[in-house]
Amino acid sequence: MTEASEATRRTPGTPCWASLMVHGLGSTEEFYADLFGWEYEPGPEQLGPYVRAMLGGREVAGIGEMPPDRQLPVAWTTYLATDDADATAESVRSCGGTVAVGPLDAGVAGRVAICSDPLGAIFGLWQASAHLGTPLAGGPGTPVWHELVTQDTSTVGKFYEHVFGHEARAHAGTGDAGDDFDYLTLSLRGHPVAAVHGVGRSLPHDRGPHWMTYFEVEDTDAAAARVLRLGGGIVQPPREGLSGRLAVVTDPEGAVFTLVRGRG
Fold it and tell me: Mind listing the pLDDT tens digit for each residue in 211-225?
């Protein structure tokens, strides 16, 4: 790839990449290859064992292997685009968040940092150079939506507005149980790019606030059944949601993600 131009560089604050760190890279590659049809190419050497998942010759996500002595939670991480990782990292700190790693160079691909918001949800910053991130066009097997699941939207919504310039708009309506539906859509230049879902006491105690990656599939029910056959698990069975028919599932190492069939 060539250096990112102003025409192709993502608008700062847009989710641009999803990456997963696991204990067993080979078995995880097999799971997602069987589920989504991914193929793989080597990633930056300085990241350790790391591959880029490919569909039709285009990069869609990254998977890396943790060092044997690291016992960190296995989870998908959403990366938000920035034109200046150092300045954005400083803004994260000044707005009550934490910068855990970086910013640091990922070879010629770009500059990266791992952060958390004031309630503890982990996300990445990505300043593109040679590597632009996931293609803008979706399709089966690609990440098509990112949603922050947290206690409530009030405080943390303002954090993302201040750091990334998101315009937050509350969703009018009620949840499945008839309670007030605490949901914000985050937009940039009038275009929705992500969301914040406040679930209160329904937040899983073993996970805490987290960013959820949605992967498009042709048939949610069939894909969820395939997850089970491949050794994964079902957290929430297929149902109708705001973005289409969806199911929350886990891979064999426990990484949680959402399958979604779009409405269109």
Answer: 999 999 999 999 999
pTM for the structure as a whole: 0.90
pLDDT per residue as tens digits for the range 134-162? 665 678 999 999 999 999 898 899 999 99
The side-by-side arrangement of strands in the sheet containing 244-250 is 167-170, 182-188, 191-198, 143-150, 210-216, 256-261, 244-250, 233-241
Q: How many other CB atoms sit within 10 Å of the CB of residue 100? A: 10
**Cα distance between residue 187 and residue 194, in whole Å:** 7
Tokens in use for 95? Answer: 């707005």
pLDDT in the model for residue 131 = 58
Q: Which SS3 state, helix, strand or coil, does residue 249 take?
A: strand
Q: Cβ distance 182 to 197 under 8 Å?
A: yes
Supply 114's token pair: 């791992």
